[in-house]
Design a protein that fits this description.
Bound molecules: coenzyme A
Distance between the termini: 54 Å
Shape: globular
Number of domains: 1
CATH superfamily: Thiolase/Chalcone synthase
Low-confidence stretches: 1-5, 381-399
Oligomer: single chain
Number of strands: 13
CATH class: Alpha Beta
Strand order of the largest sheet: 1-7-6-4-5
Mean pLDDT: 93
Structural class: alpha/beta
Radius of gyration: 20 Å
Strand content: 15-25%
CATH architecture: 3-Layer(aba) Sandwich
Largest sheet: 5 strands, mixed
């Protein structure tokens, strides 16, 4: 790859994928001492998607990625860099991005993962923009994909109610037109390093029978400290990106924040002095999908007609690290281009290759499998659901 002068960066493709299975707050009431009322009041979350046993972070990311490539009007081999933001990779090695590259049928792109927790998609977006600006790539696929339901402690009501599975993706392309990405801000505050973390499995504490017995392979969180960080940081990070874009905050048409908690999002609106109708919220149906939450929310915002060419949009996220990041961009594309992406790219056509001489143990935590296997009366019958089809699942859900 050769280096050329700075080039414009445009967001040309977008897509998302959510697994069919849904875990409601009523389901969680059967697992921990909680209530739908508590969860809705404190977080705004009503349900979250749960990946099926055959699904992985790479498989969900590949579906979202192919949908974004389709929306961009490109072929998989037009992509010359693949970045996957995730804190729940399929394996420690290889990167999830390498598995995604093969699954989408790309033969030419370098591929790597970005680790910045829930801010990962924004960090990946910034990395892709820098590659394009430097002339190192022309079409970059940036995916946020997470399978968090396999990393949760289903005896800890402070964390297991929050997170869900899914993937979202964008294609960023070099352009001769004026740039659509106009301001980026990233921050990292290591004082919060152990406020939300996963203690064991890394080199500081390799996996062992003892780390498993101590429950150290599951996400731990100081909820109040994380909440304080988020409410302190999100608005200021968004404002910094807006200032770099040369805008004032009242010019922003839509903020697409990380979907962690409705109260945090309301605090961002207050901090930015913007009405809630200029903030996109879909966490009631997804929970916190970490690096996937912003690109999933973007794709839904476009599908719902909340975004049109010329709009000033801000993505803003925060997460473990503590990290935060924001991107200010002007929307340039026809929203209708994504119309048929979900029909054209079917989950059943996307496969992630497995090693020939290895298979995983059953990946679904037993308590979760038990609840999913015995739906509450009135729940949809999952035996009838095509794996990986939220639309199909919803079509069968009771009113
Ligand atoms: C997790 C969070 C919802 C908890 O809400 P909170 O108002 O801070 O609640 P607290 O942790 O102070 O707990 C208050 C009480 O509710 C209880 N509680 C915690 N989780 C509960 C649950 N799911 N159901 C019922 N009660 C619960 C606590 O045990 C505590 O009880 P106590 O007063 O008897 O000790 C909130 O702190 C939060 O959203 N933090 C940010 C988390 C986040 O966004 N993480 C992702 C980062 S990317």
């Amino acid at each position: 790859m050769t280096v050329s002068s700075q080039r414009s960066v445009r967001l040309t493709g977008w897509g998302r994928y959510a697994p069919a299975q849904v875990l409601t707050n009523a389901d969680l009431e059967r697992m921990v001492d909680t209530s739908d009322e508590w969860i809705v009041t404190r977080t705004g979350i009503r349900e979250r998607h749960v990946a099926a046993a055959h699904e992985t972070t790479a498989s969900m990311g590949a579906i979202a990625g192919l949908r974004a490539i389709h929306t961009a009007g490109l072929q998989p081999d037009d992509i010359d860099l693949i970045i996957v933001a995730t804190l729940s990779p399929d394996h420690w090695m290889p990167s999830t991005a390498a598995l995604v590259k093969e699954a989408i049928g790309n033969t030419r792109a370098p591929a790597f993962d970005v680790a910045a927790a829930c801010s990962g998609f924004v960090y990946g977006y910034a990395t892709a923009s820098a590659y394009i600006g430097a002339g190192l790539a022309s079409n970059v696929l940036v995916i946020g994909a997470e399978l968090l339901t396999r990393y949760l402690d289903y005896t800890d009501r402070g964390t297991c109610i929050l997170f869900g599975d899914g993937a979202g993706a964008v294609v960023l392309s070099a352009s001769d037109e004026p740039t659509s990405t106009v301001g980026i801000e990233l921050t990292t505050d290591p004082q919060g390093a152990y406020m939300i973390w996963l203690p064991a499995g890394g080199s500081a504490s390799p996996p062992s029978a003892e780390t498993v017995a101590r429950g150290e392979h599951k996400i731990r969180m100081e909820g109040r400290e994380t909440y304080r960080f988020a409410t302190r940081t999100l608005a200021s990070t968004a404002l910094a990106a807006v200032a770099k874009a040369g805008w004032t905050q009242d010019e922003v048409d839509l903020i697409i924040p990380h979907q962690a908690n409705a109260r945090i999002i309301e605090a961002v609106a207050k901090g930015l002095d913007l009405p809630m109708d200029r903030i996109f919220v879909n966490l009631d149906r997804y929970g916190n999908t970490s690096a996937a939450s912003v690109p999933i929310a973007l794709t839904e915002a476009v599908a719902e007609g909340r975004v049109k060419p010329g709009d000033k949009i801000v993505f803003v996220a925060f997460g473990a690290g503590f990290t935060s990041g924001a991107v200010a961009l002007e929307w340039t594309e026809d929203p209708a281009r994504a119309r048929d992406a979900d029909q054209v790219v079917r989950p059943e056509h996307v496969t992630v290759r497995k090693p020939v001489d290895w298979d995983s143990v059953d990946p679904i935590p037993p308590v979760l499998a038990e609840v999913l296997a015995k739906p509450l009366p009135g729940h949809m019958d999952l035996s009838d659901v095509v794996p990986g089809e939220p639309e199909h699942a919803h079509a069968h859900a009771p009113d």
